[in-house]
Amino acid sequence: MKVYGWIAITICMVICLNPCICLEETDEGNCNIYEGSWVYDESYPLYDSSKCPHIRLEYDCLKYGRTDKEYLKYRWQPTNCNLSSFDGKSFLTKFKGKQIMYIGDSVSLNQWQSFICMLHSILPNATVTQVDGEPITNHTFQEYGVSVIVYHSTYLVDIEVEKIGRVLKLDSLKGGNIWKEMDVLVFNTWLWWYRSGPKQPWDYIQIGDKIVKDMDRMEAFKTGLTTWAKWVDTDVDTTKTKVLFQGISPMHYHGEEWNEPGVTNCAKETTPINGLSSTSGLPKASYVLESVLEKITKHVHLLNITALSELRKDGHPSSHNGFHGMDCTHWCVAGVPDTWNLLLLESIMN
Ligand SMILES: *[C@@H]1O[C@H](CO)[C@@H](O)[C@H](O)[C@H]1NC(C)=O
Ligand SMILES: *[C@@H]1O[C@H](CO)[C@@H](O)[C@H](O)[C@H]1NC(C)=O
Ligand SMILES: *[C@@H]1O[C@H](CO)[C@@H](O)[C@H](O)[C@H]1NC(C)=O
Ligand SMILES: *[C@@H]1O[C@H](CO)[C@@H](O)[C@H](O)[C@H]1NC(C)=O
């Protein structure tokens, strides 16, 4: 057995000395699908959102009065290659019997919602079951046995209620035993790390034996992510389970980022920012995320949506949502998250 193992390793090494074959081993060959531009495409959007069952009131922009529709018409065009067009049937066929799980805050819910709508547009009469719960909502396409699941977790690491109050435990990750059984995992966390005051869902932070009232939030984010990264390295069999981390989803509350100083939300935005990048550069959290991902020895794919989404100041609900708050954090469905899912499919289908 050992001998065969060594032969296999030797063959692999020989093959990988050939750069053409090695490139095929990476997700996108030599094309960076995250570098490109938004182009106007008459055939967009991918689906009619009014036909998608149960879009959550936070994301259903057309239903809640958005009248400009140009924001639905943009397709992401990588500079050096083309994205595959959406083929929901081949996804469901290829992933027959499998489970894909989005894990994170409401931005994960946003992306899950978009994917459900994309699949429904292809299979409007499919038999589906949806089991709603906390933390898991499980949407299953019965004919294919494919489950598209969202697991609500604001920080990935745990919050536990103890005598002293709610404790955010930066080095504890209990959801992992469920997650690692999935076939595809798409993680995301960021939104809540800076919440303070009444919206902050914890009273203390704990690392090891140390309990503190508060700490530098970027440091806390890095510590929590590192716990997650160690979990991937020790617990996840990445030959069985594909692991992706979604890059930081940008917000649009600061007009100076798109050369309109004084503007404090996205209410009047109907077109993307022109050009390849906004003036603000990537959010600091992106660099923290990248530095943590670099240290993981197992294969984790960065679903690098930050820069391309920064251009989409027009993609948010603003006041067109069911709770009538100003929301330049989440994204309309249909809209930008459909592109995130196309990019996700590009990296898990090949
Ligand atoms: C993510 O994509 C942007 C835009 O193409 C790029 O500038 C950045 O370096 C990428 N990040 C990583 C870690 O590849
Ligand atoms: C992308 O698609 C366009 C239009 O169909 C085609 O002209 C072009 O050659 C394609 N590019 C690549 C890299 O395949
Ligand atoms: C779905 O069912 C409706 C009503 O039975 C039918 O009109 C429609 O053609 C079906 N659509 C597909 C794609 O099978
Ligand atoms: C999701 O639902 C399917 C079908 O009922 C089930 O087989 C699967 O175990 C569920 N997954 C989770 C994580 O609850």
TrEMBL record:
GO molecular function: O-acetyltransferase activity
Subcellular location: Membrane
Pfam families: PC-Esterase (PF13839), PMR5N (PF14416)
Predominant location category: membrane
InterPro entries: TBL (IPR029962), TBL_C (IPR026057), TBL_N (IPR025846)
Highest taxon of source: Eukaryota
UniProt domain Trichome birefringence-like C-terminal: residue ranges: 83-346
Residue span, Trichome birefringence-like N-terminal domain: 30-82
GO CC, any one term: membrane
Signal peptide: 1-22
Keyword Signal attached: yes
Topology versus the membrane: Single-pass membrane protein
PANTHER family cross-referenced by the UniProt entry: PROTEIN TRICHOME BIREFRINGENCE-LIKE 38, PROTEIN TRICHOME BIREFRINGENCE-LIKE 9-RELATED
Family the entry assigns: Belongs to the PC-esterase family. TBL subfamily.
Protein's name in the database: Trichome birefringence-like N-terminal domain-containing protein
